[in-house]
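fyi for ur records
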Amino acid sequence: MRLDCAQRSGLHTHRITRMDVGFSLRETATARQWLHQQLDQFDVVASDRARLVLAASELVANAVEHAAPPAWLAVRLCNESVLLEVRDGSPERPLPRRSVPSNPRGRGLLLVERAMTGWGVHQGRDGKVVWCALDLDRTTTKEAR
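which gave:
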């Protein structure tokens, strides 16, 4: 597990982009579209792209539904990893919930945990940043991407 970006010490960011997130449920779709555009530029394979878009969707949806403005989504390409960060204005730490079959909600952070190499939260005085990182599959040939 490399987690180059997430360890943040000696961070060598090759590229970072950020978008502001509004507080409407439509923002999740907007974030997915924006992230696809960013990942096109990073040359990310389809399987990694799907995992990153899923994680970003879940983190943005959580911020929109449970947090407070202002919010943004950032994506960083660092060495062989991608780091996603979602910042919001709420000091409350998100916690994975145990889901029950009868409730379709409560699985977002569990999905992030399973799809990504790692995730965590950085608390601040005026909010938090929920991050997740994925070590990229660089073994697939460009033609197969």
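The beta strands are 13-21, 71-78, 81-88, 118-124, 127-135. thats all i got for now
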